[in-house]
Amino acid sequence: MTPNITANRKWSISSVRAACISNSLYTNGDNDAYSKMLDYVNEHKPTYVNIYKVAKDICNHSVYQTITNVMYILEQQAVITTFELDGQE
């Protein structure tokens, strides 16, 4: 019998900041816009819609990027997924 599987997805200000730095993102943004984007990350879970919103903001403040590429970067480098089986880690 297959257990009840739950995926828990998390991101943080630190993980998104690290992804931006390592990929030279948000180079055309100012401190206020960057802080606002990171506050959004801190207050919202990494659903696909929220990843899109953050990626769009990052893309608007970056050069030579697409939203889907930034979404991929965030998913691979900033979002951490853990699993629970039957409510236990």
Short description:
The protein is of the alpha+beta class and about 90 residues long. It contains four helices and two strands. The two termini are about 20 Å apart.
Structural description of this entry:
The protein has one domain. The longest helix has 13 residues, at 31-43. It is elongated, with a radius of gyration of 15 Å. With 89 residues, the protein is an alpha+beta fold. Helix content is 53%, strand content 13%.
State which percent range the strand residues make up: 5-15%
Q: How many beta strands in the DSSP annotation?
A: 2
Overall shape: it is elongated
Domain tally = 1
Percentage of residues assigned to helices? 40-55%
User: Please, what is the average pLDDT?
Assistant: 96
Order of strands, widest sheet: 1-2
Give the tags:
alpha+beta; 89 residues; 2 strands; two-stranded antiparallel ribbon
Q: What's the topology here?
A:
Layout: E1 5-10, H1 13-22, H2 31-43, H3 48-60, H4 67-77, E2 80-85
Antiparallel strand pairs: 1-2
